[in-house]
Every structure is written in structure tokens, then in C-alpha cells.
Amino acid sequence: MEGAIVLVSFAAVGGFVWAVLARTQAYNWELAARLRRLAGPDLAARGGAAVPFGARFVLPMLRAVSRGFGRLLPGEMMRAVERRLLLAGRPWRIAAADFAALQALACGVLGGTALWIAAGAHVRTPEAGALAASLGLLGAYLPHFVVSARIAERRRAALDALPDAADLLVVCVEAGLGFDAALATLAEKTQGVLSEEVALAQAEMRVGRPRRQALQGLADRLAVPEVQAFVSAVQQSDHLGVPIADVLRSQAAFLRQVRRQRVEEASTRVPVRMLFPMVFFILPSLFLVILGPAVIGALATIRGTHAF
Fold this sequence. Notes:
The protein has eleven helices and no strands.
């Protein structure tokens, strides 16, 4: 029994590691295959043997497993997972079905590891089952926690970069550039989440998507209220015929004011956050240094000895 548990656990861990590596390298493998096909049939035939084993065997197997998970799970749940992956910037370039399969794999890995540890420590069956169930649930929710952290990080980065981006758009438009050219300059001259999303919106507009829809897609991918308000103001200026320079100027001033308010609000929370470290770490040490010698001296006096 213990040997079977160990074997299953090692197989699960190996499968999990291989799945992560295969998913991270999938895009490069597929890109190389497309380039070989575009280069010509002779080159593709010569390069066929150079395709890694994971791209020829493991990756299709993982995709088949992911499709199986996609069929088992409800459509509403898959759409919710797809939405969260979109807000997270599509980490690891995975789809919703791949994410569900990754959750199941992480659940099996941690649950199998818990059973392995329990078997080695000779833990009783009820406690071993509870430990395996707890770690399995932790493994199932671990990818969810990672995606939530990515979403929060992207939103914070976009919110921090938005005022400076608005100022750059104002400068570009007042210098004589059109709004589309100003967006291109913003995507070229800046870096970060907001710059990447603007570049993606620019690419969508180049292939024929209307600017209104491309900007709305940018706001939906970031899901930041300030970005949504900025996009709505730009869309209203297009609809009503208001000069875009005036709208951008007012939005830039508003965003600078919002950033100043956020900084002031954060500064007011600093004393409250410093209170707990002071009470639990700094003040006890300070009392020990100040009152310690006095307490030792008092005890020595009471006992009739000399304090050092």
C-alpha cells in the first residue's frame, strides 16, 4: 500500500512539473513550427525531427485532458474562469480548460503528497484522509490565488501608470498628433501593463476593429474604474464631436487629482499600520532595556545583595 502511494505521488509530481514546462514552452514550439511551414516544405521536412518530444506527444495529450475537463465543467464556470484569466493577462498562455486541468493536477499532487507523508509517519486513516483533503483543497485553490494576485498587480500597475499616460497623450495631441498616433507613441515610449494593453488595442485597430470597440476592450481587460472613466470620456468626445485635446487635458488633471488623493489617503493609514509593530515589537524591547536594570536592582536590594 505504501509503495503504491509513493508511486502515485511521484507520478503526480512529475506530471505536474512536466505540464508546467510544456505549457510555458508551447508558444515557442508552435511559433517555430509555423515559421518552418512558412519557410517552405523542404525546410519543414528537414526540421520535423527537431520538434521536441513534448510538442509531438505530451502537449497534445495535455490538450486532450484539458478538453475533457472543459466538457465536464459547467459553461458558466468556464466563462467565469476565462474572464478571470483575461483580467490576469492570460498567465502562462492557458485557456479556461487548461486552468481547470491545472487545478485538478495541483489537487492530486498535494493530496498524494499528504498521503505519502501520512503513510511514512504511520498516521491513522481518518487523520491521513483529513490531511489529504485539506492539502488537496489547498492545491485546487492555489492557481486561483495566483491568478487573483496577478489581477490585483495588473490593476495597481495600470492605475499607477494612468496619470502619466494621460499627460503624455495631452502633450502628443497638443503637439499636432492625432489620437491614434498619440496612442502609438504611448505604446512605444512607455512600458508596463497599460502600455501593453494600449499596444494590443492599436493592433486591433490596425486589423480593422473600430476604435470605440478596441478602447472598450482595453477597459474590460483591465477592469479599473479610472481606466473605464477615461475610455468613456474619449468615446463621448468622439460621439459628440468635442475636441479631443480638451477632453484629454481635463482627464489628465482629474487623474492627477485622484492620484494625489490616493497618496494622501495612504499616508493617513501609515500611523495605524505602524501601531501594531510598535506595540508588539518595539515597545517591549524598549521597556526591557529601560526598566530591566531597575527591576534587577530592586530585586537585588530586596534580597540584600549588590546589583551589578
